[in-house]
Amino acid sequence: MIAFDNVAYSYGGGELFSAINLSLQPGSFHFLTGPSGAGKSTFLKLCHGELFATEGTVTLFDRDIRSVNRDGLARMRRRVGVVQQDCQFLDHLPVATNVTLPLSVTGREADPQDLADLLHWVGLTRHASAFPPELSGGERQRAAVARAVIMSPDLMLADEPTGNLDWEMSLRLLTLLVELNRMGKTILIATHDLNLIRAAKTQVPARVLRIKGGRVELAGAEL
Amino acid sequence: MDIRGILRDLTRPDPGAERLVPPTGTGAWLAIFTSAVMAFLAVFALSLSLAAGRLADRWSDALARTSTIRISAPAEQAQGQLDTVMAILNATPGIASARALSEEEERALLTPWFGADLPLGSLPIPQLVEIAEEGAGFDAEGLRQRLEAEAPGAVLDDHARWRQPLAVAASRLRLLGWGSLLLILGTTGAVITLAANASLAANAQVLRVLRQIGAQDGYIARAFVRRFTLRTMSGSAAGVLAAILAIWIMPSAQAAGGFLTGLGFSGASWLLPWLLPPLCAAVAFAATRAAAFRKLAEMT
Lengths: 223, 300
Prior knowledge:
The complex is a heterodimer of chains A (223) and B (300). Chain A has 8 helices and 10 strands. With 223 residues, chain A is α/β, with parallel strands linked by helices.
């Protein structure tokens, strides 16, 4: 699904990652942990081509991200659901329209019932007609999750998806991601929420990647 | 992108793509206002160019259809040479009429330079013969050689040395007109590019979100391109309409003649200004598309 082959990433003269070699198999469930500023968000951006490795090769869906042209990259991204820490929306469009945008850009329309179910699932039914600036941080995060999963992506990348959510909503989100994983989707979640990781491990064989000293390594069983 | 695809994009609304960009903004009014003003100016440039061309053609044509023969001969030979010249002219094909100018007419021609009390009789003023052409005109070189042989004091002036600078002036005026049009279209493109850039910069978040969810550059650009193209087209159509009305209501100066007489359009040329809106739209299309793709290329 994703493979990092001797990947390094540096910016502004400093090296953030070096010699990263790892592979996420289709249908796997991974958490990515590390202290603040370790580069979790950057790592996720490298995964879907928002940033490019300064050395080495990142392969997504069996293709070197660098070798794909812009339209090809756009098509690849349709298979990736991304929930970023700073969720951005088209502020002039209602939440429901924002959630269905990934379908719109591919010329498809959302099934109204599916959309209603999804909004209900993330607890945004009442806010379907609201505009993103009217939402709280947690609501924005849930809207971002809904937008990321509406395409039923092969790969889900989530950057601190529960950062603004209460525990109950965090568990609901986790359940959704676990369900997606059981459907064969690959999940990678950057988080520092150990409780979330423990909760996930009770439902799926989740593995934990830890960023340490510019390297990404598989964490031990202590988690 | 082929022409058919471009026309389809422009004529068939795509609500999905169009709603991606916030509907209002100063860029919208800037594009409409600028294209209206530019089209207004372009119509006047076109009108002036056509008028200048017509006027120069008229002058040139008027001079081209007449010639003059100047007879400089001693007094005792003057009448004989005039008779010979008239006989030659009457027998030359392509000459509609030939007329010797009277003493009064010659005096009138010289008065502006020498004053009214010119003693014409005491001066060796050449006799002038005015020739009007018909059909394809006459063979100037042949006539010149015949005059040289039979009336050595007669010199043919077919006005070529006057026509030449007028023809040059006419072509320069036309060139100036077309150059102005190109400049106006270029300026329109530049202003639309600025407006599009401003709009793209203001909507950077829209572009980022769309790229992230897998929208292709062409899809994103289409929303901006269609909007700016249609705005430019409507603005320039309004500008053309205003300019045509302004030209139409201009007072006629037929009696006075001169340059203003020819200002405006006639017959089918009234349709020419209506080529400007699609032309401006094409400029806006190219400018906005280039700006959008340039902006998108800055993003991954």
